[in-house]
Amino acid sequence: MSSKFYAKAYDILAPMATFLHPIAVEGLENVPKDEPVVLCPNHSSNWDPILLICALGREVNLRIMGKNQLFKIPILRSFLRKMGVFPVDRGHSDIGAVKNSIQTLKDGAMLMVFPEGTRVRGKKNTVRPKGGIAMIAIRSGAKLLPVYIGVKKRLFAKVPIIFGKPFAPEYTGRKGTAEEYQANADEVMRRAYALGGAPCR
């Protein structure tokens, strides 16, 4: 979400966040500026989306899929919407969130989604990602971009954020199959954890 509100919030919050958790960014050149892409990071902490926003900078056209529980708090709901976050019901097939995601990418914005759907504390992918992320990429014509965010977040210690190379999901037919969606989701998270040197199943 490239807006005055986003830029102002970034200017206030980013210095505070990176003071507490400095970031060491690698591979930012892999993030395309002229084509839609789905950022697919691992997820170990509530700090992850904040630090990833800090790594991307303030001049990005970004939207973020966030769990719907966050939107039950009125003040937080208003802030999140202004920051380009939209809700998803993780326990069900949320058609509205899927359509929102596809339209976001077709409009040329960048989409941030945590494919595992929950926080994973360890350094390897023990939770299978949701295949829907690949379906969104396929139906919008976007690429998947793996991102690794360091799982250890000690105060004032650097957190690595590593952007991998984007890749087009592989599929057959016009829209692909559920099995192909899952295979692509597995692959993007395998690549994400590999960026951090973590063993992958």
From TrEMBL:
Pfam family, one: Acyltransferase
Keyword check for Lipid metabolism: no
Residue span(s) of domain Phospholipid/glycerol acyltransferase: 37-152
GO BP annotation list: phosphatidic acid biosynthetic process
Protein's UniProt keywords contain Transferase: yes
Entry keywords, A to Z: Acyltransferase, Transferase
GO molecular function: 1-acylglycerol-3-phosphate O-acyltransferase activity
Signal peptide range: none
Entry protein name: 1-acyl-sn-glycerol-3-phosphate acyltransferase
Record lineage: Bacteria, Bacillati, Bacillota, Clostridia, Eubacteriales
